[in-house]
């Protein structure tokens, strides 16, 4: 089985958001990067699928050359090859552009199944997975927390606001992975060394046309300082009064 | 506990390869998630968490530079150093466990052992299925190992060993001991297996340093070993000293890990602790302390990285390693003392890491060549005159 896992290189959760001088982007000074949390789950799903059904795993990303660090880590965990669609400014790409560029490469790779995270932790669009499936004309199952593939079909459980939904799908398919699907493995030192000889291709993405452009970025207003209305039991009446008459939530 | 933030004042990370960073980060995550939650309890109880040994083996940290052919991952020396740094960020006892297994047991078997010894022991040790210890120091011979009293006498095709070793990390839990003994006038290494008649390894208790590490005495009373127990390819004091050069290189990195842990803890404490209505970090004396130790750590990082690159190029000498071990352990101990002080009464609580590191480093500055002995090694290198005696 030809398995592809896509990921996005995003700022780590400790990165501080600060609006850049142009007012349209965030200032990346001092940021560290990582693979997006849900994409780690997608790569793990790809590796487990390979272990069960055979085949090979290609890790695919649209991003800068520096993403080779994350690709190497996935190769160390057991992926077989990596492809970076080199884009010096991936933060500027909108989901449609990204999905179209990824779709072209997925097609060229001849994939049977694509795993990706349910959402990237930086832009929070949750759109690339479904758009990728749309461009490919494939089945798409989103927010997957349990997965069973056999032959050219599978079943998956999706976690929704209304409860767990079980769906059947046929391959080829795009699966977007949610927390709970698996626990991503840690690489080991042997894997890290083995990854050195695995191929990482850097290519230019095919031009995916026009895209939405960010006009301005503003941080949310700073929160007002809190107020201590009293201490212990004696403070309760004042607190109830404030909740009733000021906050108006009681 | 907050996530660890490593001091990297001069962006040394930029000079590490992806593999080196990945090896470090992999071990760093493991130490944070799996080891740090356990260590304080083990330190208080005076035990090593043996339950982590299979996980260490899965990570592949035993003998990180041993080639794949013999069961190791075959990393370069910078990656190996970074692994030791992360281990000792956890605890000097953890790094000691790993250094002894890799640098002091797997290395001599790899460098001085027969093909049969290598094939038998190295894969088992890489998998953590056999634990090793290294017996060189004796009750009366620490800095002067050449004076050792332990003997090996020829007995048919085998040998009979007699003597005592002391301060031996992992002795009690080891499956195999590399024992150095005077054999026909020369110092030779022997692999003595646990359970061999006349061989015992009682644990040394009541330490207030390296408490999360097993330290033992090795007692050899007419211990008969076959001829195949002898390490055939190393003789003279240079053989055990060659092992120590490996382990000391690891300590030059490891000590940085302890220093980085203390610095990180001290810095975040100073920023959070409010005194006289502002953070402790906002006063000049704490800032001076932080500036001093950050500078020392940065210099130590530069030295360790450079020594690692030299080692990979085959240009590292034992005298250079002496400078690295001496300098970096000293700066780590100084860092621990300064941070302990900065943290006031909290600095003596095992709720924080600094006190544990401080106690541990009092051993690290003594073992594997004391600070003063390394001073004399550097002195000899500079002047050409030895001043040990």
Structure description:
The complex is a heterodimer of chains A (about 250) and B (about 400). Chain A has six helices and eleven strands. Chain A is of the alpha/beta class. Chain A starts with a strand and ends with a helix. The model of chain A has no long low-confidence stretch (mean pLDDT about 95). Chain B has three domains: about 10-125, Acyl-CoA dehydrogenase/oxidase, N-terminal domain (Butyryl-Coa Dehydrogenase, subunit A, domain 1), CATH 1.10.540; about 130-235, Beta Barrel (Butyryl-CoA Dehydrogenase, subunit A, domain 2); about 240-385, Butyryl-CoA Dehydrogenase, subunit A, domain 3 (Up-down Bundle). In chain B, the strands form two sheets. In chain B, strands 1, 2, 3, 4, 5, 6, 7 and 8 form an eight-stranded mixed β-sheet that branches. In chain B, strands 9-10 form a two-stranded antiparallel sheet. With about 400 residues, chain B is of the alpha+beta class. Chain B is globular. The interface of A and B includes residues 186 and 196 of A.
Short précis:
The complex is a heterodimer of chains A (250) and B (389). Chain A is α/β, with parallel strands linked by helices. Helix content of chain A is 28%, strand content 27%.
Helix content of chain A: 25-40%
Rg of chain B from C-alpha positions?
21 Å
Give the tally of β-strands of chain A: 11
Structural class estimated from helices and strands of chain A: alpha/beta
**Domains of chain A, number:** 2
Q: Report the C-alpha radius of gyration of chain A, rounded.
A: 22 Å
Mean pLDDT of chain A, nearest integer?
93
Which characteristics define this entry?
heterodimer; A: 250 residues; alpha/beta; Rossmann fold; 2 domains; 6 helices; 11 strands; globular; B: alpha+beta; Butyryl-CoA Dehydrogenase, subunit A, domain 2; Butyryl-CoA Dehydrogenase, subunit A, domain 3; 3 domains; 10 helices; 50% helix
């Amino acid at each position: 089985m030809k398995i592809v896992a896509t990921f996005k290189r995003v700022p780590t959760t400790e990165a501080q958001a600060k609006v850049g001088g142009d007012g349209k982007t965030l200032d990346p000074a001092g940021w560290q990067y990582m693979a997006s949390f849900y994409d780690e789950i997608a790569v793990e799903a790809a590796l487990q699928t390979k272990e069960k059904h055979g085949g090979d795993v290609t890790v695919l990303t649209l991003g800068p050359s520096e993403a080779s660090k994350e690709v190497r880590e996935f190769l160390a965990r057991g992926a077989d090859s990596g492809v970076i669609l080199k884009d010096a400014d991936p933060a500027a790409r909108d989901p449609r552009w990204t999905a179209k560029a990824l779709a072209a490469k997925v097609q060229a790779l001849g994939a049977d199944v694509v795993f990706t995270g349910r959402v990237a932790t930086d832009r929070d669009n949750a759109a690339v997975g479904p758009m990728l499936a749309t461009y490919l004309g494939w089945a798409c199952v989103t927010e997957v927390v349990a997965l069973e593939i056999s032959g050219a079909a599978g079943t998956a459980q999706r976690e929704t606001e209304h409860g767990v939904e079980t769906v059947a799908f046929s391959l080829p398919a795009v699966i977007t992975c949610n927390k709970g699907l698996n626990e991503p493995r840690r690489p080991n030192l042997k894997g890290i060394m083995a990854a050195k000889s695995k191929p990482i291709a850097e290519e230019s993405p095919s031009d995916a046309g026009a895209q939405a452009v960010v006009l301005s970025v503003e941080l949310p207003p700073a929160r007002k300082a809190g107020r201590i209305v009293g201490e212990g039991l004696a403070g309760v009446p004042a607190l109830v009064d404030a909740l009733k008459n000021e906050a108006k939530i009681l | 506990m907050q996530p660890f933030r490593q001091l990297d004042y001069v962006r040394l990370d930029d000079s590490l390869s992806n593999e080196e960073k990945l090896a470090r980060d992999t071990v760093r995550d493991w130490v944070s998630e799996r080891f740090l939650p356990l260590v304080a309890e083990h330190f208080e109880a005076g035990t090593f968490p043996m339950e982590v040994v299979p996980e260490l083996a899965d990570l592949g940290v035993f003998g990180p530079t041993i080639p794949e052919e013999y069961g190791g991952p075959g990393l370069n020396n910078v990656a190996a150093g970074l692994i030791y740094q992360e281990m000792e960020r956890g605890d000097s006892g953890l790094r000691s466990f790993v250094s002894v297994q890799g640098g002091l047991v797997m290395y001599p078997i790899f460098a001085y052992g027969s093909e049969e010894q290598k094939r038998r022991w190295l894969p088992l040790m890489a998998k953590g299925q056999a634990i090793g210890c290294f017996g060189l120091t004796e009750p009366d011979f620490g800095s002067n190992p050449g004076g050792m009293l332990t003997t090996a006498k020829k007995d048919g095709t085998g040998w009979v060993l007699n003597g005592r070793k002391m301060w031996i990390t992992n002795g009690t839990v080891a499956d195999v001991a590399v024992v150095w003994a005077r054999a026909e006038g020369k110092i030779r290494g022997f692999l003595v297996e646990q359970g061999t008649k006349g061989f015992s390894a009682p644990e040394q208790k009541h330490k207030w340093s390296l408490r999360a590490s097993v330290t033992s005495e090795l007692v050899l009373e007419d211990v008969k070993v076959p001829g195949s127990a002898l390490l055939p390819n190393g003789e003279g004091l240079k053989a055990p000293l060659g092992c120590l050069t490996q382990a000391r290189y690891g300590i030059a990195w490891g000590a940085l890990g302890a220093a980085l842990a203390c610095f990180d803890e001290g810095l975040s404490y100073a920023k959070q602790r409010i005194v006289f209505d502002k953070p402790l970090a906002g006063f000049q004396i704490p800032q001076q302390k932080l500036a001093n130790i950050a500078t020392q750590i940065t210099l130590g990082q530069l030295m360790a990285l450079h020594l690692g690159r030299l080692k990979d190029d085959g240009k590292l000498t034992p005298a250079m390693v002496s400078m690295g071990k001496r300098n970096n352990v000293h700066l780590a101990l100084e860092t621990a003392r300064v941070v302990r002080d900065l943290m006031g009464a909290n600095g003596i609580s095992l709720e924080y890491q600094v006190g544990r590191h401080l106690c541990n480093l009092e051993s690290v500055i003594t073992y594997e060549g004391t600070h003063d002995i390394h001073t004399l090694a550097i002195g000899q290198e500079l002047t050409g005159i030895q001043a040990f005696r």
